[in-house]
Amino acid sequence: MGTNSLQLSGDALSAVMRKAQTLALDYWASIDQRPSYPQTSGVETEALFARPWGEEGLGDAVLDDFAEIVQHSRPGNARFFGYVLGSGEPIGAIGDLLASALNQNVTAWRSAPAAVTIEHTVVHWLAEAVGCPGLHGSLCGGGSAGNLIALTMAREAKAPANEDGAKPCVIYASQEVHMSIPKAVALIGIGRSNLRLIPTDGAHRMRLDALEAAIAADRRAGRLPAVVVATAGTVAIGAIDPLAEIAALAHSEGLWMHVDGAFGGLAALAVPERFRGLNQADSISLDAHKWLYQPVDCGCVLYRDQTDARRAFSHSGDYVRTFTQDPIESFAFFDETVELSRRFRALKLWMSLQYHGRRAFQDAIRRDLDHAERLAAKIVETPELELLNTPVLSAVCFRHRHAQNDVLLQRLIKRGRVYLSNATIDGRFALRACFVNHRTSQDDVAVIVSEVLAAARDVGDASTS
Predict the structure, then answer these.
(1) How confident is the model at residue 462 (pLDDT cuts 50, 70, 90)?
(2) For residue 98, what are the CA distances in angstroms to 296, 351, 352, 421?
(3) Would you say 397 and 410 are in contact if contact means Cβ atoms under 8 Å apart?
(4) From CA 385, how far away is CA 387, in angstroms rounded?
(5) In sequence order, what are the beta bridge partners of 108?
(6) CA angle at residue 243 from 242 to 248, to 5 degrees?
(7) 20 to 30 Å CA-CA from 230: which of 66, 250, 334, 413?
(8) How far, in Å, CA of 292 to CA of 354, rounded?
(9) Phi, psi of 38 (to 5 degrees)
(10) To the nearest 5 percent, what fractions of the chain are helix, strand and coil?
């Protein structure tokens, strides 16, 4: 019998940990000096990282690759304004390391007593933070997973399918809805042809009159209206649907109301007045790896009634049977969600939220909202630029009046000082800056306009040369 080379000595493990710690600390110290996007290519990354798995191990020399990995990765620095992606708060990252060290499989209380209790606790913190105390839930990979879990529950509550297959029913959402909703509607067997995309108003919010008319038309046609999906933070501009009015209509019509709050929902911690009616939802998806700045992945799905979750997901084998009726010790996440194997996602939240305290996160969210308002004001003051939305949350869409904006965006990213994404607003290509970044300062915001103007000049110079 040979030696067990997977079992490291204490000295060897300490050496690896010290080296990894230094790499992480050096990265965090250098993050704001790094280009906002790496200058790389598919050919280059393949040449660096696509390699055979060797017969012999490299030992701690494997960590030497980290420098190249960093050079070919997009840093979450203070000038990253693309998409809706949080900035990777370091205490959360340390929590992730410790969670991996513990290696708990958070299936049920008996498998991971501390981890299950901590997950319940942070879920209750999140529910209370968005004005929905008493809701139940679990952590998941992100908003897309949360939406899928919630719509599965909604389907089983309104048009049960688990035993005999999916039945025809109709789901309603705004035309600005996130792409995960049509995907979920397909995956749960309802079919995208039964998803009604409701027109929006001038502020890109779902029109209540159009929703009411669509429900009535489907009832007249003999169809079953089942679910309405409201959005608390559309992906392009952060619009918030009229949640209270949609909730009243949904409940009067007997529909399940789900709120996709992956972008905006956690901003209710700082500006609750913008989310009136959120507490009337039957289910809500949230992303702590957006506006609580946690490392990916850290999504959450909340729901009003655990019975709905168990109706959708509880189907167990004898091998997971528990032998206690204690309400705490008999709990199993696999009775309320799609996963069996589940990592200890809650530890980073548990540590990060307590390390910094509630006020620190409220203040950080308010700073992001202020950054968006400052950028919008600066755009209005700049004759070459046109503002395309008034920020409701932290997304700002705009365009250069005289440049080809898609070419401008490519040049802006290549310059490497700021990173913006793009959107289509009322049929027009837009530059999009989104603030969900605890590292961003007012000085970083000020750079956006100057860099866009510089990129436009670069594009103009290239076209005339």
Answers:
(1) low
(2) 15, 10, 13, 33
(3) no
(4) 7
(5) 332
(6) 105
(7) 334
(8) 12
(9) -70, 145
(10) 50, 15, 40
Residue 319 in this model has a pLDDT that exceeds 60:
no
Helix (H) or strand (E) holding 428: strand 428-434
Q: What is the pLDDT of residues 324-355, one digit of tens each?
A: 778 899 999 999 999 999 999 999 999 999 99
Could you tell me the CA-to-CA distances from 61 to 51, 65, 130, 305, 438 in Å, in that order? 15, 8, 46, 51, 33
Residue 65: cis peptide before it, omega within 30 degrees of 0: no
DSSP line for 252-283: HTT-EEEEE-TTTGGGGGT-GGGGTTGGG-SE
pLDDT at 131 over 50: yes
Strands 170-174 and 195-198: parallel
pLDDT for residue 5: 80
β-sheet bridge partners, residue 197 = 173
CA-angle at 43, arms to 42 and 48, nearest 5°? 100
List the one residue out of 305, 269, 265 whose CA is nearest residue 284: 265
SS3 211: helix
CA distance linking residue 27 with residue 54, whole number of Å: 28
Give me the helix-helix angle, 442-464 and 405-415, nearest 10°.
120
* Whole-number Å distance between alpha carbons of 407 and 412: 9
| Token representation of residue 237 | 């501009």
Q: What span, in angstroms and rounded, lies between the C-alpha atoms of 334 and 102? A: 20
CA atoms within 13 A on the CB side of 245: 11
Per-residue exposure over 250-262, b if at least 16 CB sit within 10 Å of its own CB, e if not = beebebbbbbbbb
Task: Give the CA angle between residues 138, 144, 149 to the nearest 5°.
Answer: 45
Task: Please give the single-letter amino acid code of residue 25.
Answer: L
CA distance 336 to 400: 49
Q: Side by side, which strands form the sheet with 385-387? A: 385-387, 395-400, 428-434, 421-425
- CA nearest to 177, candidates 98, 218, 124, 232: 232
Of 168, 27, 120, whose CA–CA distance to 329 is shortest?
120
Region of residue 39 (phi > 0: left; psi between -120 and 50: alpha; otherwise: beta)? beta
Distances (CA, A) of 297 to 106, 143, 396: 15, 10, 25
Secondary structure element (H or E) that encloses residue 302, with its range: strand 299-303
Which two three-digit tokens encode residue 419? 């990173």
C-alpha span between 96 and 84 (Å, rounded): 21
